[in-house]
Structure formats: C-alpha cells, structure tokens
Specification:
Elements (H helix, E strand, L loop, with lengths): L15 E6 L7 H13 L9 E6 L3 E5 L4 E5 L10 E4 L2 E5 H4 L4 H16 L5 H12 L3 E3 L5 E3 L1 H8 L10 H13 L1
Parallel strand pairs: 1-2, 2-6
Antiparallel strand pairs: 3-4, 5-6, 7-8
Length: about 180
C-alpha cells in the first residue's frame, strides 16, 4: 500500500480506514498532503465514527457488504473539476486531479474533505473558509472561490520556496538542490 496507512495518526487509525488505495509511485505527494491535512485538523476535532478513505481515480468502485455488491461513485456532473469528494462515510481523493496542483493546494483540497466529513460541515463556502482559516497565512480563495497561494507566499513558491509547514520531501530536496547549484 505504499505506506499510506502509516501517515494516519495513531489516534485516528481506528476511525479512518484506507479502504482503497491505487496510487502509482510518481504521485508520492498525495500521502504527504493527506498527512498534513490530518495534522492540521487534528486539534479541532473529535472523531466518533468510522470513515473509509479511497485514494485512486474517479469513478470509484465501493464494496457494499455483506453480499459482495458494490456501487460506483463518480464525479459525473463536472468530472474535470472534481478533485476530492465526501459521500456519507466515504472520503474520495483523486490523485490524478490532485497532482495538477502544488503541494499546499493539494493539502487545502484534502483538508476541505476532512472538514466536510470530520467537522460535519455541509456548506461548501463555509468549509472553504474553515480551510483558509486553518491554513492561514499560506492559502486564500480567489474571486472564483478556488484555493490559491496567498500573494506573499505565492511569490516565494514561484521562486522555488514553499512554506516549510506545507512542503513535502520532494519539494525540500528540490529546494536543497537549487541552493547547492547557487
């Protein structure tokens, strides 16, 4: 399973179950983003029910016990816009869509789904505002309500520097490599 269950904090392991994991190795920023999102939301929640996490690509085939049936969860309305989703006790992360964003924005998208599920927030705008509050000062919303890097942090990311609290190991290695070339 490429280590993804190991990124779930011990305190959450009995509540957050990796039900499906299909992640090619080149998408290694996704487990990091899941870990960062959980670390960010952890002080603000108390989980009291079990959630199943699916990491792969839309559509997801979701098993339904006890008769070994399944249902298909698809982002049919606007498939190119769905990055992550929550349905009942299921949390879905589409690695192909997430990989289109830098690490801090991946964290924001994943954190939003945890806000919906673990904080029981249904309203999209409210969930996005909670995410921005939790990730401030690094992430803000643009005029269309999309996550973007805050202006001060956006300039440093474009120069190859990502805030250390939101960077993954790959980003850190790139930064070190860039410094050694100077």
């Amino acid at each position: 399973m490429n280590g993804i269950p190991n990124i779930i904090p011990d305190k959450f392991r009995r509540f957050l179950v990796i039900a499906h994991y299909d992640l090619p190795p080149e998408f290694n920023s996704i487990p990091f983003a899941i870990k960062k999102a959980l670390e960010t939301i952890e002080p603000n929640i108390r989980i009291n029910k079990k959630y199943k996490i699916f990491v792969g690509k839309f559509p997801f085939k979701v098993p339904v016990p006890p008769d070994n049936g399944y249902f298909i969860f698809s982002a049919s309305e606007k498939p190119d816009e769905y990055v992550c989703a929550v349905y009942d006790d299921y949390i879905f992360f589409d690695y192909a869509q997430l990989s289109n964003y830098p690490s801090p924005i991946q964290v924001a998208h994943i954190l939003e789904e945890f806000v919906h599920a673990l904080m029981n927030v249904a309203d999209e705008a409210f969930a996005k505002n909670i995410v921005c509050h939790l990730l401030r000062p690094h992430i803000v919303l643009d005029e269309q309500g999309r996550y973007v890097l805050a202006p001060l942090h956006n300039a440093s990311v474009h120069q190859g520097v990502i805030p250390s609290s939101l960077e993954n190991d790959k980003d850190k290695k790139k930064k070190l490599r860039n410094k050694s070339e100077d």
